[in-house]
Amino acid sequence: MTNQVAHPMAKFQRKVASLIESKVIRSTDSIWKLAFLYGDEWSFWKKELLDFGFTMQDPVQEVLLVEAWDEE
């Protein structure tokens, strides 16, 4: 039996969903607002998001719509 390791963006996606559920952010907030919550880690997550085609003006809910974080 092989264990699959979750893609880092899948973990990020779950954290974003948790932030929305706890009303820390709204699903309609722009992705750039996450920078305030991630501090020093933001540069990593921003690069990842940009690599997957997101812009910092996209609503956070767009991150939740991704079904698979496969890298081609």
From TrEMBL:
Q: Which Pfam families match?
A: DUF4327
The cross-references to InterPro entries, in alphabetical order and at most eight, read: DUF4327 (IPR025477)
Could you identify this protein by its name?
DUF4327 domain-containing protein
Q: Which organism is it from?
A: Gloeothece citriformis (strain PCC 7424)
Q: What is the lineage of its organism?
A: Bacteria, Bacillati, Cyanobacteriota, Cyanophyceae, Oscillatoriophycideae
